[in-house]
Amino acid sequence: MISALLRKRDSSTLLHFFSTVAPQLASKHLSTYRNDEFSPAALFLKNKGFSDTQLDIVFSKRKRLRSANVEGTLKPKIEILENFGFSVDDITYIITKFPDFLHHSLNNRIHPALSLLQNMLGSGGAVVQLLRKSTHFFRTDSMKTVFPNTQLLESIGLSKESMLRLLCLCPATFLNKPETIRKHVQKLGTLGMDPSSGMFIYGLWAVASMSNQVWDLKLRTLMDLGFTQSEALSIFRKEPQAFIATPEKIKGIVEAVLSTKIYTLASIIAFPCCFLCSIEKRLKPRLQMLRILDQKKLLDKWPSLSSAIKHTDKKFHEKFIAPYPTIFTGNTSLLVAKNKSRNIGKSV
């Protein structure tokens, strides 16, 4: 339409188009529900607490909801969430995020998923928190994924506490096909990881997040950097999330640590949590500060790699920076925040 008007070079027609027609077209596309503003579906959802913006999002994602049957489709889905203790804010947030919820079968998909999660987590409040984090439990049949996966993990001796922690840390793990989880569990067994170990769920999380090809690439990256296969697998057993780091980050961490001429590969094997820290924001600045202290003969002994990285910013500042205020004057880019408290690893 615009190109045709430009070809005609009719200024009055163009003025009319941009002042009158264009805003109408824009308004039509910006609001996907307002033409049906008084439809039963729109009125029902609005009365349940949905804002105009949320309705726009819901109806733009799933246009057929505009004509959904209130009594047969919408009302039962909203009511079951209310019965499970979901607030208005929870309901509008989850449905805006995942409008397909309103299309799923109440008896075959929604109710079984909510009941299963409540039995696992023990309270409706915990279910709400989980589903605000991940709506994927409604995207698959929980009785074909979550339930058999839970049974499988119970059968190998994984404690309920560990299972719940995994569910909260990485809910998508439970949505894999049971045969896939079984393969992951078998792989962890061959790697020497025991379900009774606190690291087992992190190992399952890690292997579930990557293909065999990616796993092989990260193992090869470590070996190319000088680790033996046995040492690389030892790193995984001690800190499975080290393998979640990209090959580029793995290489960057190792090179930065070895550049000190103090720490060795053995230092990394002893403290594989180093792969979880930021290279530019944590590792390099701290190593550079230690190097400056060492050059000025102010460091009696380099701290262990663990101490150098795991200390909170506040503790690192108090131990290595505060005693020498004049040394780091002008090196403001190296100074760490005094009041932050970030931790690396599972404990400090």
Written overview of the protein:
By secondary structure, the protein is an all-alpha fold. The chain has 19 helices and no strands. It has helices spanning 2-8, 11-30, 40-47, 52-61, 70-83, 88-97, 106-121, 124-133, 146-155, 160-169, 178-190, 200-208, 212-224, 229-238, 247-258, 265-270, 279-295, 305-310, 313-321. α9 (146-155) runs parallel beside α11 (178-190) and α11 packs across α12. The protein is elongated and about 80 Å long. Mean pLDDT is 85; it is low at 25-33 and 335-348.
Write the layout of secondary structure elements.
Elements: H1 2-8, H2 11-30, H3 40-47, H4 52-61, H5 70-83, H6 88-97, H7 106-121, H8 124-133, H9 146-155, H10 160-169, H11 178-190, H12 200-208, H13 212-224, H14 229-238, H15 247-258, H16 265-270, H17 279-295, H18 305-310, H19 313-321
Helix pairs in contact: 4-6, 9-11, 11-12, 15-17
Short description:
It contains 19 helices and no strands.
Strand elements, count: 0
Low-pLDDT parts are: 25-33, 335-348
- What Rg do the Cα atoms give? 28 Å
Strand composition percent: under 5%
Biggest pleated-sheet summary: none
Task: Name its key features.
348 residues; mainly alpha; 60% helix; 0% strand; elongated; disordered C terminus
